[in-house]
Amino acid sequence: MYTTEKSVDVLNDLIELNNDRVAGFEKVIADIKPENIDLKTLFQEYAAQSRQFSQELTAVVARYSDDVETGTSASGTLHRAWIDVKSLFGGSDRASILAEAERGEDAIKKAYKDVLSEDELPAEALQTVSMQAQKIQAAHDRIKALRDAS
Fold first, then answer.
1. Side-chain-facing half-sphere of 27: CA atoms under 13 Å
2. What is the per-residue pLDDT for 127?
3. Fewer Cβ close by (within 10 Å): the C or N end of the chain?
């Protein structure tokens, strides 16, 4: 059974994760070399997707609370720092870029799965989160397929 406070917390966590996803993709986009320019377009698409997801989730949270998340998480900041370190030591090849992107997608996919497996959301929020989870899964699968092919 959901409570308003718990629902707001869960949705704010998803907003934060989507903000992390945007920041992560933007970090990778800035470092992409010309030979991987096709990934730049893909990652721009997914950054825009997460901006949209954050906006949708923010609209739902705003119906219940004035306390809407706007930042990123500490773990997301650490992940981006790790991407910086890896790129300094040669981790900027296509396979490495896609492996890191898949790792980020694994994390957000798991978060959505966890939220959906609990009974913490009202019906309208559940519908939004379910639709977003399907799109996150599709993004993950696309990145995984590209990684497998590289």
1. 23
2. 96
3. N
Residue entry with tokens 């699968």: 141
Say how many Å lie between the first and final Cα of the chain, rounded: 45
| Gap between the Cα atoms of 143 and 70, Å rounded | 26
SS3 label, residue 129: helix
Q: What is the identity of the amino acid at 105? A: E
DSSP string over 135-149: HHHHHHHHHHHHHHH
What residue type is assigned to position 17 of the chain?
L
Which SS3 state, helix, strand or coil, does residue 78 take?
helix
CA distance 35 to 100: 17
Question: Computed from CA positions of residues 72, 22, 6, 74, in that sequence, does the dihedral angle turn out positive or negative?
Answer: negative
Question: What's the pTM value of the predicted model, to 2 decimals?
Answer: 0.85
Q: Are 115 and 129 in contact (CB under 8 A)?
A: yes
With beta carbons less than 8 A apart as the criterion, state whether 105 and 139 touch: yes
Q: Which amino acid is at 66?
A: D
